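Quick one: structure tokens for this chain, please?
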Amino acid sequence: MSKRPRSEEVKETLSAIHWVLKLFWRVSPKLTLTTVIVGVVLEIEAVFNTFVFAKGIDVLLEVAQGERDFIWIYYFVGIFFGLSVLQHGLRLINQYTDRMLDIYFYPSFQKLLYQKLIRMGTQNLEDPNVNNLIERARNNPSRVHGQFTQVTGLIGTSTSLLSSGVALFFFAPHFIPLFIVTLLPAIIIDKKYLSKIWRFNRDSTEDRRKAYASAHNLQDSNSLHELTITGGHKFLSEHFETYTDWWTNGMRKIRYTWYKYLFSFRIIRASVEGYADLYVFLKFIQKSISIGDVTFYVRQAANFTGNISNLANSINTIYEQSLYVKETKELFDKPEQVDGTYKLERLKEGPSIEFENVSFTYPSSKNKVIKNLTLKIKPGEKVAIVGENGAGKTTLVKLLMRFYEVGGGKVTVNGVNVNDLKIDDYYKNASVLFQDYNTYGNLTVKDNITIGKIKSKFSQKKLERAAKYADIEKFVNNYPDKFDQVLSEKYKGGTRPSTGQWQKIAIARFFYRDAPLVIFDEPTAAIDAVSEQNIFDKIYKSFKGKTVIIISHRFSTVRNADRIIVFDKGKIVEYGSHNELMAIRGKYYCAFQIQAKGYQ
């Protein structure tokens, strides 16, 4: 990897800092500003406290020697008390603002992250490089928060350093360059090894994703059923342990070398601090300063070296954090799916759909999945699409739903290019049930069904109708809490539906949504034949006026469609009604005959 110009590194670090500060300002302007101001005041007060304490020692000696009245002791005790109360109050305010920012930040970050992913669109989210950024962003909220803490701490440290520096400048100005020079090597070494750690973590992101996916499977009770029987848990465990052993060994080697260098520089620093103390003591012996001044300057010398060290550590830590933060920022800076401008009102009937000479290749592939496809679907028509796996059926749906931009040609809905439609308006008119449909085990049956139409007023009548049409009434009524039953045994009082029951609940969601455009992609793969027949009878009868697209391998679900489209290698090779296709004796006929034999 070529070394980047230092100016570029500084620019990126400052950009990351600016982004983090804007992020926290967005979370809470009041808390963010209070954190900075209180941090600065605390550092100034610390130097002032040392000065007052040093003068108090001189006064104490003068009182003991009879040079001042005893009342001066009360004055200083009162001042110390007041400063102590102020300091405790400021520290509590600082702790409060820090904790509250912590409390507000993490849920706010999660919300910002999922909102960003929603706006990016599926095409971006299936990019491996974007997935690496997502993985790092999910692991980086603590680093983003740490960056903010370091920056606000840096402001306070700089204030304290300036205060100590001013005091030392008028006493022993040669201390300042001496302290700075001795700390420069440590700063350079820190920066070098922090960069090594960042590169090591960055370059291993994909391997880490794979390893922790194995760990996730080993922690998932559903996955463990099969893994325990097959012994696959041993393979996954070895996969995870191989990566973590490699990673920990790599980190150990980097840090061991790093800390060996640091120890040498710490010895040099201790020597310089010893020299400063000796210089102050000699000045006292020469009667140039008082015993209180000794206390003050020794502390200021220690504070100055400590603050330079802290400043160096903060700068290096900020640089290190910025390496991770800029990757999170990079994700948030990624382009989002461009919305259309055409407003689509709620349709009263199913729309017409047209694919005009559409071709498509997935970004990570070179092979065309769809090839010069032309297809017209009439308003309210019920179309079934069949074909072998990989023929392009699901891809067709993804293009229709604007998950991907077509590579050639166009897709229109009611004559309007889908790219020109406002996405929210378009999606309000559509329902899609994919093969990998969503299940929400943390929610109730009612929530799992009505989540498909959360912006509309809840209707118990529509809920019961959807349950009836999806054939879930019987098993739902057997649940202890009926429609209020939580659907996972991992929650108190919850129960886990079977795969077929889950699929029926997902279908009920689309009956409840009642959209004018309805798309089912293998909707009944896990459902028994009797239930399947009942459900599709309801779909064909109750979805009058709706445009319905059904993708299925089961011919019993498609034979009653108005038109059946046969796909093969991204092209339409046959179309017509069931009877018309059987008469042709082509691909559909052969596949139907093979499937029919399986039921004999």
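The chain has a mean pLDDT of 83.
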